[in-house]
Amino acid sequence: MSFPVVRPRRLRRSDTLRRMVRETRLSRDDLVLPLFVVEGSGVREPVASMPGVFRHSVDALVDEAKAVRDLGIPAVILFGIPAEKDSRGSGADAAGGIVQRAVEATKRAEPGLCVVTDVCLCEYTDHGHCGLLEGDEVANDPSLDRLAASALSHARAGADVVAPSDMMDGRVAAIRRALDGASFEHVPILSYAAKFASAYYGPFRDAAESAPARGDRRGYQMDPPNGREALREMRLDLAEGADALMVKPALPYLDVLAKARAEFDVPLAAYHVSGEYAMIQAAAERGWIDGERAMDEALVAIRRAGADLILTYAAKDVAARLAS
């Protein structure tokens, strides 16, 4: 049957009807808030390229964690910016490093909050790359021990989940061996399995002071045209012991996310990255779009494509709207 018997608009006539037949719902439980932590005391420094986002010292981070808990957001992911950097990224696994202290303080203050840690060397190396350099090349295998040591130090500090984002081959297996060998077999790995060499990371690199000093990351992050390769990366990470998978960025790769949802039955995360967030904020500030509606629409699209978890800088604002 067709028109006039079939009239899809019947179920769109009121807000109540639209809510009743809504296929995809965004919940506070879907959200993970990225947080940047820096040295110092009482620091709450705005990130110019990401309106509403701040860099926090550890003491200020604890206050932010309380606010996150009060909004019903279940998890945060921490990115550390150390005071000093070197070629090996020594701060990445330092027992008293910036992220390690942030994890300890956050879990002490808010034990029920899930603390995820980003495992990478880029914030800690003076060259800004995600692994160790040999000449001008990022050396894959020598980097694995450093990444595993970093993840293990996060687990010892109390991290609930470790999330390797470096895109070195074999890093999930190396991290799993290190965790299991130190009796942290209960700590899950959320792998940035399909992380693309994207133009959307610029504001993050400002916030995390992690832009490469020379060269770029296209030799290890994924080539944006390659969707089939992304699924292969995911299969490999699952075989190495990943418990959950991530697609990054989110909106330009919804096709990859949807294909992953159809193929894999593990939890899927998507990172609504800094550039995606900043574009909406910038357009809203100029009055070109309704910022709240655009942000909600973007996150619902990510959920509709198959994400179980969304890492987004808009988590607090969205959670507040969902609670109202």
Could you name the key traits of this structure?
single chain, 324 residues, alpha/beta, TIM Barrel, ten-stranded mixed sheet, two-stranded antiparallel sheet, 11 helices, globular
Describe this structure in words.
The chain is of the alpha/beta class and 324 residues long. It has a single domain (24-323), classed as TIM Barrel (Alpha-Beta Barrel). Helix content is 39%, strand content 18%. It has eleven helices and twelve strands. Strands 1, 2, 3, 4, 5, 8, 9, 10, 11 and 12 form a ten-stranded mixed β-sheet that branches. α2 packs across α3 (98-109) and α9 runs antiparallel to α10. The longest helix is centred in the middle third of the chain and has 18 residues, at 140-157. The chain is globular, with a radius of gyration of 20 Å.
- What is the CATH superfamily label? Aldolase class I
- Tell me which CATH architecture applies here: Alpha-Beta Barrel
**Secondary-structure element pattern, one letter each:** HEEEHEHEEEHEHEHHEHEHHEH
Query: What is the name of the CATH topology?
Result: TIM Barrel
- In which range does the helix fraction lie? 25-40%
Number of E-state strands: 12
Q: What is the arithmetic mean of pLDDT?
A: 95
Tally the helices: 11
Largest sheet: 10 strands, mixed
Shape: globular
Would you state the CATH class?
Alpha Beta
**Low-pLDDT windows of residues:** none
Radius of gyration: 20 Å
What structural category do the secondary elements indicate?
Answer: alpha/beta
Hey, roughly how much beta strand do the residues contain? 15-25%
Q: How many structural domains?
A: 1
